[in-house]
Amino acid sequence: MALTEENGKVCPDCGVPRPLTEFYQIRAARYVGGIRYSASCKMHQKIRNAAARKNAAPDSGTRHAIRRANKRWADSNPEANRDSQARWRKSHPEEAAEAHRRWQLANPEANREKARRHLRKKRGESESDA
Ligand SMILES: [Zn+2]
């Protein structure tokens, strides 16, 4: 099927005409049908979005910027971070149990190793005794 103005557009990053199905639909009330299409094709839009997240200014308030700021704080304040996490677990026991369960499912090997360490410690063996 030939591409026309109606069913295709040119991605500025590829520079080639592509069918509209290769562009993201974006809700936009002012546009015909209440949607518009992303400027770049899906592949290039993904790259652009990832770069925008990565380059978001620390004070931009985006969740990626906030997460990076929190991570920086946690890395430079390990003790305060441990205390903060412990307080959160204490005040959110069900969410904490659920998060722990998810971690166990996602990290079976690390979980077994943790259990082995715990048993060794309980038996009074040192880390080096296997
Ligand atoms: Zn493209």
What keywords describe this structure?
55% helix, elongated, 130 residues, single chain, 3 domains, 14% strand, alpha+beta, two-stranded antiparallel sheet, 5 helices, two-stranded antiparallel ribbon, binds zinc ion
Account of the 3D structure:
By secondary structure, this protein is of the alpha+beta class. It contains five helices and four strands; from the N terminus they run E-E-E-E-H-H-H-H-H. It has three domains: 8-55, no CATH class; 60-89, no CATH class; 92-124. The protein has helices spanning 42-55, 63-76, 78-91, 93-106, 108-122; strands at residues 8-10, 17-19, 23-27, 35-41. Strands 1-2 form a two-stranded antiparallel sheet. It is elongated and about 75 Å long. It binds zinc ion. The site of zinc ion (ZN) has 7 residues, from strand 4 and helix 1.
What is the C-alpha radius of gyration, as a whole number of Å?
25 Å
Q: Assembly state here?
A: single chain
What hetero molecules are bound to the protein chains? zinc ion
Beta-strand fraction estimate:
5-15%
Structural class: alpha+beta
Strand order of the largest sheet: 1-2
Query: What order do the SSEs take from the amino end to the carboxyl end, as H and E?
Result: EEEEHHHHH
Q: How would a crystallographer describe the biggest sheet?
A: 2 strands, antiparallel
